[in-house]
Design goal:
This protein is an alpha/beta fold. Helix content is about 35%, strand content about 15%. It starts with 20 loop residues before the first helix and ends with a helix. Bound molecules: ligand 3NM.
């Protein structure tokens, strides 16, 4: 195939194993951060339901749930609502909590540089689930270029307000260098908007991961999402339109 650009290593999951790895990864990878959700359980459930439905209806095929602050019990409850709302098709990725993926009926996990080695995460996950890892510079990309991961994220590409203590921005140049260091699907993250997404893809990313330009920034407490679910769907569509 003209899209073929290399083969994943033996450690990859069924998600990319044996197929052209860069051809299968979705171009838009929204991340729903728990910071945009209300604490009240009833409100929270409705918010999750509507936000997830709206972006899935917009055409989103992969979605990460990122919750850095709550208990496993809360994360698991949220994750189950998300799966219910998304239906069986979308690929759902949980941030960090490898041990909850199976119970949540999620498809995979995203780990950071400090969470756990790819080999350890792969051992817990088994061969068939999706595993992604964060990197913050091209050297870190090179270090996991042949690891048992399905994709490599690099960021922040641009300044971001959605992550505490972000690493220094890598810019488009960082994406270009990262692209030279791996054949795996490369996901760019950090401050990406519809205005910059095409330049990021042209620099070599296969996908853009996005929090605030789709879901907004959380207002916290009991106030609920800053962005209406319909608006989140429109935002996702704005990205997807660019990639058609
Ligand atoms: N990880 P936004 S940047 C979750 O550099 C996350 O690894 C990053 O949110 C990294 O699209 C980031 O609002 C925040 O900038 C992305």
């Amino acid at each position: 195939s003209c899209l073929e650009s290399g083969f994943p290593g033996e450690g990859d999951s069924a998600y990319t194993r044996g197929v052209s790895p860069r051809a299968v990864f979705p171009t838009l990878y929204p991340i729903l951060d728990a910071g945009v959700l209300s604490q009240d359980p009833t409100l929270r459930r409705g918010e999750l339901l509507r936000l997830v439905r709206c972006v899935v209806d917009a055409g989103v095929t992969i979605l990460q749930y990122r919750n850095k602050q709550d208990t496993d019990t809360q994360v698991l409850e949220d994750a189950r609502w998300i799966r219910d709302a998304a239906g069986p098709e979308p690929t759902l990725i949980l941030n960090d909590r490898v041990h909850l993926v199976e119970q949540a009926a999620f498809d995979g996990v995203h780990v950071g540089q400090h969470d756990m080695t790819p080999a350890e995460a792969r051992r817990i996950l088994g061969p068939d689930r999706v595993l992604g890892i964060s990197t913050h510079n091209p050297d870190q990309v090179a270090a996991v270029a042949d690891a048992a991961v399905d994709y490599i994220a690099i960021g922040p590409v641009f300044a971001t307000a959605s992550k505490q203590n972000p690493d220094p921005v890598v810019g488009l140049e960082g994406v270009r260098t990262a692209r030279q260091r791996t054949q795996k699907p490369l996901v760019a993250i950090g401050g990406i908007t519809p205005q910059t997404a095409l330049a990021v893809m042209e620099a070599g990313a296969d996908s853009v991961a996005v929090i605030s330009a789709i879901f907004g920034t959380g207002l916290g407490a009991e106030r609920g999402p800053a962005i209406a679910p319909e608006q989140a769907g429109k935002n996702a569509k704005d990205f997807l339109r660019l990639f058609r």
